[in-house]
Automatic annotation (TrEMBL):
Keyword Metal-binding: yes
Gene Ontology CC: cytoplasm
Record InterPro entries: Inositol_oxygenase
Catalytic activity: myo-inositol + O2 = D-glucuronate + H2O + H(+)
Top-level taxon in the UniProt lineage: Eukaryota
PANTHER family: INOSITOL OXYGENASE, MYOINOSITOL OXYGENASE
Name of the molecule in the record: Inositol oxygenase
Amino acid sequence: QSAQYGSCSLRRMSVMEALELLDQLVDESDPDVDFPNSFHAFQTAEGIRKAHPDKDWFHLVGLLHDLGKVLALFGEPQ
């Protein structure tokens, strides 16, 4: 995987584009969820913001925590 994805040259996209791309994925860990994966990311970030308003780095981590799942759309197993 490092050789294949390490250069980050498979596809160029913004974080928002990656979040939108995740909406195409049916997450094996939550197959019955009826809302988009991007909603989960925003919901997580907002929950962290409410609980820890002074830790902006933590809000960002909440938003980004599932972005690696985008690799499943390129043939990698979940």
